[in-house]
Design goal:
This protein is an alpha/beta fold. It has a single domain, classed as Aminopeptidase (3-Layer(aba) Sandwich), CATH 3.40.630. It is 38% helix and 16% strand. The protein contains eight helices and ten strands. Strands 1-2-6-3-7-10-8-9 form an eight-stranded mixed beta sheet, with helices on both faces. It has a two-stranded antiparallel sheet with strand order 4-5. A hairpin with a 2-residue loop joins β4 and β5. α1 packs antiparallel against α8 and α4 crosses α8. The longest helix is centred in the N-terminal third of the chain and has 28 residues. The radius of gyration is 19 Å and the shape is globular. The mean pLDDT is 95.
Length: 325
């Protein structure tokens, strides 16, 4: 009887613990706002950054903008104090491009495991005198992970340090063939064996034609490819918080676009690290000089960014990491 009573009491307590955890997460998720995201994207995707082409002046300026954000918010580097840059030797890409670098921020956890949040911050630069600002691709994702980093930092400062660390990875040279994430996966600052999951963001600020009548959506790619448990955690995080339509159209193995292989998460997935790729789909301004900051839906960007924060919160604080299938 005593055993039954103990088990029953434990089962009763589980929902209350989950409610308390969700309430904590929601408090810090609210620091992610459409106004802040809009201000940041308008700066990051402005002409001043010259399209952020790999190794060029605009990309260097973008890297500095990200590093300055971390310094101003007292967010650590996982490399060494004050140094947020993982420089990529030019011989790694056979001297095809000028020197470039990934930019990393870090929220330490209580264990040596980490969740990696990634987005590429490079774009296409200037072509025929036209600046390709890349507001959606991938100014939206780049600024989203800055906001998420700030939310986790606020939580840690308030006494809610995550169980697992949060590694924020801004990768360079994605547009040149996933070079930045490839380099990181071969030269990780935290061993891949300690990397639990990669949540990758590439274009989350717009609405595609398929969803013109229902913009309350996000495409998820890869969530069940390596771990069914990760997929379930992701679904639960959405159901308990922002309640977006999770569209798995491009997750199909038969998808002719092969998006699963076309963004930076793939360089984690090929090392058997479970991944989720967040994506709004393509649009008429994709890889055009018309991909500008005025065309993003910032209320929707806020909602999608909060979903990724809530998912990362669950993954960073749960007892066990998602099991591989």
């Amino acid at each position: 009887m005593k055993y039954i009573w103990t088990v029953s009491l434990t089962l009763l307590l589980i929902p209350s613990v989950l409610i308390a955890q969700n309430a904590k997460a929601e408090k810090f998720a609210k620091s992610i706002t459409a106004d802040e995201l809009q201000e940041m994207v308008y700066t990051f995707a402005s002409d001043e950054f010259e399209g952020r082409n790999t190794g060029k002046k605009g990309q260097k300026k973008a890297a500095g903008y990200i590093a300055d954000f971390y310094r101003e918010n007292d967010i650590e580097s996982p490399i060494r104090k004050g140094d947020y840059f993982q420089e990529i030797p030019t011989e790694f890409y056979r001297d095809k491009y000028p020197p470039t670098e990934n930019v990393l921020g870090f929220i330490p956890g209580k264990t040596n495991e980490v969740i990696v949040l990634s987005a590429h911050y490079d774009h296409l630069g200037i072509k025929d005198g036209k600046i390709y600002n890349g507001a959606d691709d991938d100014g939206s994702g780049s600024m989203a992970i800055l906001e998420i980093a700030e939310a986790f930092k606020k939580a840690a400062d308030a006494g809610h340090q995550p169980k697992r660390g949060i590694l924020i990875l801004h990768v360079t040279a994605e547009e040149k063939g996933l070079i930045g994430s490839d380099y990181y996966s071969k030269n990780p600052v935290i061993p891949l064996a300690q990397t639990v999951t990669n949540l990758n963001i590439d274009m989350i600020g717009r609405v595609d034609k398929r969803h013109q009548d229902n913009p309350n959506y996000i495409y998820l790619i890869g969530s069940d490819r390596l771990s069914t448990e990760l997929h379930k955690i992701s679904e639960r995080a959405n159901q308990e918080t922002v309640d977006l339509e999770l569209d798995y159209k491009y997750n199909a193995k038969s998808d002719p676009n092969r998006f699963y292989y076309r963004s930076d998460h793939y360089n984690f997935a090929k090392h058997d690290i479970p991944v989720i790729f967040y994506f709004n789909g393509t649009h008429a301004d994709y890889h055009q000089p018309t991909d500008t900051a005025d065309k993003l839906n910032y209320e929707l960007l806020e909602k999608r960014t909060r979903l990724i924060f809530h998912t990362a919160w669950k993954l960073s604080n749960r007892e066990k990491k998602p099991a591989l299938d």
